[in-house]
Amino acid sequence: MLYGFGGFDKYYLLVLIAFAISMWASHNVQKSFIKYSKVPNDRGISGAEAARILIQRNNLNVSVDRAQGGMLGDHYDPRTRTVRLSPDVYDGRSVAALSVASHEVGHAIQHAHGYKPLEFRTAFFPIASFASQTWTFIFLLGLLFGRGSGAYTIFTIAIMMFAAGLLFQLITLPVEFDASRRALAQMGDQGLLGTHEIGGARAVLKSAAMTYVAAALMGIANLLRLLAIRGRRD
Ligand SMILES: [Zn+2]
């Protein structure tokens, strides 16, 4: 994020709008999660049990572990083939816990089926992670340089690194939507959720996907702003 450089302009406004959307999205995720974590699922199974059932039914060689940390600590680790669930999801017997656990198994199924966007995302992660951590320093270096072709080159390198991080966020979108689509199909087909519970599961997964959309929007707005700053310094 970059605020306060070059005064208030239309790109700054764009970043603020994107920021407001992302705040709204994360508020919605918490709201749906809290709402459906109070709704017990009909079969009374925990997130961890649901994950193990789906792993077994899909013949996957994947383990289920309890993750450290908060509500968004849930993830699938392709390197160790592990579904990690936060305590609320691991032990929870709600519609929300079941949905999140099934979503993470959705990633494990993607991995087992060689789903290309996931493979690309995993391979690209180290580069994107380095680039997202480093671009700010290089950009600040460009600001110190002031104007001229030297500064322009430094800004360009920083912007390309920022764009690498943004590309990672964009690849994340199809990966996340597909994992949720698989989770909903699995929960229905394997009889984990009744038909009247699917609506709640869809609401939880849809709002979780919205945070990724919001993050990507923020990234696009920031990229435009960085390009504008570089342009003004040329
Ligand atoms: Zn996911």
Molecular structure report:
The protein is mainly alpha-helical and 234 residues long. It has one domain. The chain is built from seven helices and three strands; from the N terminus they run ααβββααααα. It has helices spanning 10-37, 47-57, 87-91, 95-112, 116-145, 149-189, 195-233, and strands at residues 63-66, 75-77, 82-85. The chain has a three-stranded mixed beta sheet. Helix 4 (95-112) packs across helix 6 (149-189) and helix 6 packs antiparallel against helix 7 (195-233). Bound molecules: zinc ion. Zinc ion binds next to helix 4 and helix 6.
Summarize the structure.
The protein has 234 residues and is mainly alpha-helical. Helix content is 74%, strand content 5%.
Describe the protein's topology.
Layout: H1 10-37, H2 47-57, E1 63-66, E2 75-77, E3 82-85, H3 87-91, H4 95-112, H5 116-145, H6 149-189, H7 195-233
Parallel strand pairs: 1-3
Antiparallel strand pairs: 2-3
Helix pairs in contact: 1-7, 2-4, 4-6, 4-7, 5-6, 6-7
The structure holds zinc ion (ZN).
| Unreliable residue runs | none
Number of domains: 1
Question: What percent strand?
Answer: under 5%
N-to-C span: 22 Å
From the alpha-carbon coordinates, what is the Rg to the nearest angstrom? 20 Å
Main pleated sheet: 3 strands, mixed
Helix content: over 70%
Q: What is the element string, with H for helices and E for strands?
A: HHEEEHHHHH
Instruction: Provide the list of bound ligands, each named once.
Output: zinc ion
User: Mean pLDDT score, rounded?
Assistant: 90
Number of strands: 3
> Which overall shape is indicated by the principal axes computed on the Cα atoms?
elongated
Task: Give the neighbour order of strands across the main sheet.
Answer: 1-3-2
